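Hey, resending since the last one bounced:
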Amino acid sequence: MDFLKRLLEAAAPSGFEARAARVWADEARGFSSVRFDDYGNVFAGIGAERGLSVMLSGHLDEIGLMVSHVGDKGFVSVKGIGGWDAQVLPGQRVRLLAKGGDLIGVVGRKAVHLMKGDDRDKAVKLEDVWLDFGLDSDEAKQKIRVGDVGVLEQPTLDFGNGRFAAKALDNRLGAFIVLEALRRLSEGTCLHAVTAVGAAQEEIGAFGAKVAAFELAPKLAIIVDVTHETTQPGVDEKDVGVTPFGSGANLCFSALTHPKLNDLMLAVAQKHGIKTSLSAYPRFTGTDGDTIAVSRAGIPCVVLSVPLRYMHSPSEMVDLNDAQAVIDLIVAFCLELPGDIDLSRCEALFTKRPRKADANLS
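The structure tokens again:
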């Protein structure tokens, strides 16, 4: 848990992942080789030159803010890095990674008492808020420049029952999972060369994973991310799927994920009694799998996710038992992966498929 907390509390928006990457790399050095590429990805590997090459990918970046203007009165305008719901911003604290050292400030907005007419009921937009570091104009312009980046400042919260809230669970949790799976595999007799990747820049286009996959050229890739937990008020299970806390590893069915790998993953889960749920995303998965799948001449992919509440907010929430299920499933899958597996899609279409999602979900 200490590793996960340190990883989550690192300030590392898309394109500026270095702080999270260093935490991840320091942990990985205890049991694997570690290296970085020039794009910002970090790699940890075991079993070089043996069996199949398997890529485990979880992205390290989080959504963030970039300074676009420092005003004459010290107020700072920003643009979003990644997909923000601006409703969550007013009143939050922010950490700015300024050149002279980090600055802690607040996100400001006109007080409701000063609003007139319909303005009170309008949805907040990013241009309606600003950052306030308690500085006057000259000091703000001296310490802050256009292009500086920041993230919301929020400590982790452990509820003590397996549930956990923090910023950046999307998707530091995935980066944590792939490294913990690699740790487990390093202790056993895995017959394959497995590389875990802490990928950069997923939130702005899944670019880091595409670069990493091109370099690694793996036989197959397992991508770990988060999905929406579906007991929240207002969530339509017919659209999103049935993924409550406690449902274990979510397996994504998509045109971009590989049918044979999906079936094999499901069979391994059933064999080992690992809880699973299924989700349908007919086109894109919304994960690094979308760019990995079309890297090089095409890389067979499978996408596993952890149910998460309040996505892209400073208080995302997960049940760590679901994260453990994903770790267990990846480890079992890699240990049982046949070295002669045929990943031709034409062959996969005619393979007998498991019919039952999970005997444990009753």
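The chain has ten helices and 17 strands.

Sorry for the duplicate.
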